[in-house]
Amino acid sequence: MATLSIRDLDLHGKRVFIRVDFNVPLSIDGGEILDDTRIRETLPTIEFALRAKARVILAAHLGRPKGERVESMSLRPVVDRLRMLLDADLGASRNVAFSPDCVGNIAHELVDHLEYGQALLLENLRFHSGEEKNDPEFAKELASLADVYVNDAFGAAHRAHASTEGITHFVPQSAAGLLMEKELNYLGKALDQPDRPFVAIIGGAKVSDKIGVIENLLNKVDAILIGGGMAYTFLNAKGQKTGKSLLEADKVELAASTLKRAEDKGVRLLLPVDHVLADRFASDAHAEVFDSTGDFPADKMALDIGPKTVELFTEEVRGARLIVWNGPMGVFEMPAFSRGTVAIAQAVAANEDATTIVGGGDSVSAVHAAGVADRISHISTGGGASLEFLEGQTLPGVTALTQR
Which of 225, 235, 247, 311 could form a Cys-Cys staple with 240, CB 3.0–4.6 A? Predict the structure, then answer.
């Protein structure tokens, strides 16, 4: 990895400002954490710093309060969960303190009272408009709390905010945390030194959301498997009418040129060969398999891939040595149309000889729903960040870190 790592820093007694991703889903009243995955993922970095007897300052955002204090978006509920998780991992009580603000006198006072091996969580960074604006003065205030800076929030690394980019201009050293390091190593190796055959599975609703990833991966992969709503724009580009299925009419020409580029490069670009159709977009809609390369019934829409497509995609995945998957194969949130996505999750996990990388909310949910998450090499914590990385874009939160 080109950037400095937390492993390279002298942390003993230092004020270590760690940008984490605690943007966890909360109950409507903001009092209960519904999923603590993001907290768990950054525990290794926090524990590494605590064991090194650092004075740990944790900073994160939650939701979109738009620069104002919104009590339902307070990070206060995270403190108890973090204490519980640290206690379980470290086998000793960790009294994680909480600061009601991320800057100002109260934050400085609480940091000053931290002892070696103790942690403090700052209140939601986005309660201040200077965070998302990457205001230099706000970034300088954050930096005044720290001796060194560590970014472990890969999910926010594609944003040039005060806590991800601006702060690095006011601290002597900026390093990647262990989770950030893991993300960069897995995704970086996939793009720069891929094992072959390299198969990418791309799903989701819109071509416009994923075309950058597809175009970049055409230069890297041996095969791309396309599912989800975006597949029907590609099928239209091949001349197949797809009824009421999702269609980006203004992207049909782009899809056609992508198909041609894949052919020219010798990349196998596979589209669904059968489909689960319904007469309406609803969880209780009547579902039927359409097994034909002909035009869809005009009054039907495709909401999932069919069993033959599952077999086709599974066979391609079975022989791969590197698999990157981003995006569902159908309307995964509806049980009747989730089978294709779950089947692909099972197929990816079944290839024990491959390095498997899964990113994107529904893809990650699918591997958990299929009970195979522990058999995936790497589950990315950054939806937008992983997409931009796979597109070949630079991430401001990464490029801002100190180079080796």
Answer: 235
